[in-house]
Specification:
Radius of gyration: 17 Å
Strand content: 5-15%
Order of helices and strands: HEEHEHH
Oligomer: single chain
Strand order of the largest sheet: 1-2-3
Shape: globular
Mean pLDDT: 90
Number of helices: 4
Low-confidence stretches: none
Length: 121
């Protein structure tokens, strides 16, 4: 997964838009990256869930609290361009099928990369 994150870089990560919840607290709605495959999305969500939020003594970590990012069904799609030179299985088949010849060539897709399996509880 480290190789996947390194390949995607900052350009492959989801952006967000700010909103407020019922208590007027800031939340951030994660925008979809329509070109990213479900395989990649599931790995990135796994990484997000593994984030360490406590210090060695069980207390909260120093610094500003992390943003409250929410994934919602029907979220807006990001307008940013897809990352190029990714393995073919990083892109959705629908995205690739809808590209014209020039855009397809400009992706410079690499051979597929095995991302392994995530064990469920």
């Amino acid at each position: 997964m480290l190789r996947m994150v390194d390949t995607l870089g900052m350009g492959g990560m989801s952006s967000d838009e700010s909103d407020f919840d019922k208590e007027k607290q800031a939340i951030y709605i994660v925008k979809k990256r329509p070109w990213r495959s479900e395989l990649v999305n599931s790995r990135l969500q796994f990484i997000d869930r593994c984030r360490n939020t406590t210090n060695a003594f069980g207390g909260i970590r120093r610094g500003n609290p992390p943003r409250r990012r929410m994934r919602v069904h029907g979220a807006a799609a990001s307008a940013r361009h897809p990352v190029v030179k990714c393995p073919k299985n990083y892109y959705t088949p629908e995205f690739v099928a809808n590209l014209d010849n020039r855009a397809y060539r400009e992706l410079y897709m690499q051979k597929e990369h095995d991302l392994g399996h995530i064990l469920r509880d």
